[in-house]
Design goal:
The structure is a homodimer.
Chain A lengths: L4 E9 L3 E3 L17 H8 L16 H7 L5 E7 H4 L24 E5 L7 E3 L2 E6 L3 H12 L3 E6 L1 H9 L5 E7 L7 E2 L11 E7 L5 E7 L1
Parallel strand pairs in A: 1-7, 1-8, 3-4, 3-7, 4-6
Antiparallel strand pairs in A: 2-9, 5-6, 8-11, 10-11
């Protein structure tokens, strides 16, 4: 197992919800959830948050997790719902993702979609649009990663697909103290994964609880 | 503050002791403490431990801390007592440190000593032997680090010197559940640093408690 597939800094509510229903996602509401910043605010408060524009930020536990985001990562795989709110064939190729001219990935990114679209590069990140099942896409990403690990970025249905195919080596899921009641669920309970994974449960002073899983 | 000075993975007992009395240190007992592996065993159990020779190891909380060891580090400063048990002028320059032919630092290392000795390189690590006060040695290390951060490796009296000079930006101290009663102390209590630093206290399932400090 020389090239791991890793989920990093993935945020869910205390009831396991990571996004609103697919139809609630829009350009104005990427997560399709009200107050979604309550899910990922812990990361934005850290010194190493990739989108930080002002100096400062915490350098405690949460910062170890945000600065690990790029550690030995050579490629990312993401589902189409992480890439954007569009569904069906690409109608407007001017839309190039949520992340502006300097996406935080700085590696090849493989967007899973059955609708073809040419690759393009923004700063250090190149987006490729690929069809195929999880194992096939992972093969492509591993090759592009040139010996480094591969990050599985989400969204939640993509992570569930890769869990079902038993392809994920480690997961860091940050559970926030907020309850949504409805939306797209990663799990019914974090204990769902304990048949296949070891786990450390690490409460952070920021209020989130980090669940760190690695294969048995 | 673009180049931090960081203490990382420094281990103390629950009563703050990091090493035996200076005269107890020897080639056979680097820490001069009985059962010193109880202090650093948590790190050796992780997948990212630099000296790991066999596959396996945990990938939970403790592994985040060990794999952060080299993150954006461009140089290390260490006291002579971390480098070796010798005192006074160098009598045997064949002794080249505890770490074998591939020291885990992989950067320039500045060993603080008033006894001159030529620099030498082992694999990716070059050891320099420098006199000067903490601020002067830090200037040299920062220049060698070429924009990256600098690690302060220890031992305990060196860390105390740099704390007294108020030169340290972040500290990760792992407190192990073992009591020594006597030896060289980092602190009377981890609370000693709270006038100058924020702190996260993070208990690990491995039994150690990580104290993560960063400047106020």
């Amino acid at each position: 197992m020389s090239q791991l597939l890793k989920v990093q800094n993935f945020n869910v509510s205390s009831d396991g919800i990571a996004a609103g229903a697919s139809e609630a996602q829009s350009l104005e509401s990427p997560f399709g959830l009200p107050g979604a910043e309550r899910l990922f605010g812990w990361a934005g408060a850290t010194a190493s948050w990739p989108n930080r524009t002002e100096p400062g930020g915490s350098r405690g536990l949460d910062d170890y997790l945000t600065r690990d985001f790029t550690h030995n990562i050579g490629a990312e795989i993401m589902g189409r719902n992480k890439f954007g709110p569009q569904r069906g064939p690409w109608e407007n190729e001017d839309w190039r993702g949520w992340w502006g001219d300097e996406p935080p990935f700085r590696t090849p990114v493989f967007v899973m979609t059955h609708h073809p679209r040419p690759s393009y590069t923004l700063s250090d990140t190149t987006f490729h649009f690929v069809a195929g099942d999880p194992a096939e896409v992972l093969d492509q990403a591993r090759e592009a990663a040139q010996g480094k690990d591969v990050r599985l970025g989400g969204g939640v249905s993509t992570i569930r697909q890769f869990l079902a195919a038993d392809l994920i080596d480690t997961l860091h899921i940050a559970v926030a103290p907020v309850e949504y009641g409805s939306g797209v669920r990663l799990w019914n309970s974090p204990d769902d994964l304990l048949d296949r994974y070891h786990r450390d449960v690490v409460p952070s002073p920021s209020g989130v609880t980090h669940h760190l899983f690695w294969r048995k």
